[in-house]
Write the structure tokens for this entry.
Amino acid sequence: MPNPSQNALELSMFSCLSDNYGYLIHDPVSGETVAIDTPDANTILKEAEKRDWRLTQIWNTHWHPDHAGGNEAIKTATGCHISGPQEVASKLEAPVDNVLSGGEVFKLGSHDVHVLATPGHTLGHIVYHIPDQNIAFVGDTLFALGCGRMFEGQPDIFWKSLQKLRDMPDDTKIYCAHEYTQANLAFALSVDPDNPDLQAYGETINDKRGRGEPTIPATLGTEKRANPFLRADITDMQSRMTGGMDAVATFAELRKRKDNF
Ligand SMILES: [Zn+2]
């Protein structure tokens, strides 16, 4: 077994489109380089070239064009191998070589990559978790202090997906696909105003944004204490949102309020 600390993956994070993050991960041992989603083919190809990384794979999280719209151009330019949910092919008609639906474990060099099914934002949405690096690429399922819009799913399946992500270790670094954190903070404070962990996290977020820095990656342990969408089974949150004791109803109410915030 290689020692993971001597075999770390390298990660490049960069802005794409108006508020997407693009990600490349590079395994210096195997030489593989993966683009997590393809918001903007030109930006991603330039970033790989700048780092002298040969792009060999794409891993899609879901079918939306700001996540898979660059598949075809990048495949044409590099011949890379594309993994992703069926919906990328069926809904966007973008190329996918290896269809994933969650529950798979595959290798990137010596690193195990766990695929989690997280329906809700879209029905085929998947997340890529690399436990030995404490990193997860969560697409539009979970954001710092927020979650994705419920375009295709229902509250019960979305809540189950968030619980699945919440089960990852607290020190997992969460790489989501958008810089929405400051807007999410305003909403979170409106539904959980007396949460000291949220207040402290909010100061850190405002400081970072004030300096023009990204707030990503978020840390799962902090999100568990501050992100209202991960707290739909906390009694205080339930009584504030619905007066009841039902996590699914509380999640649904939070999502509805955020849509209208
Ligand atoms: Zn999306």
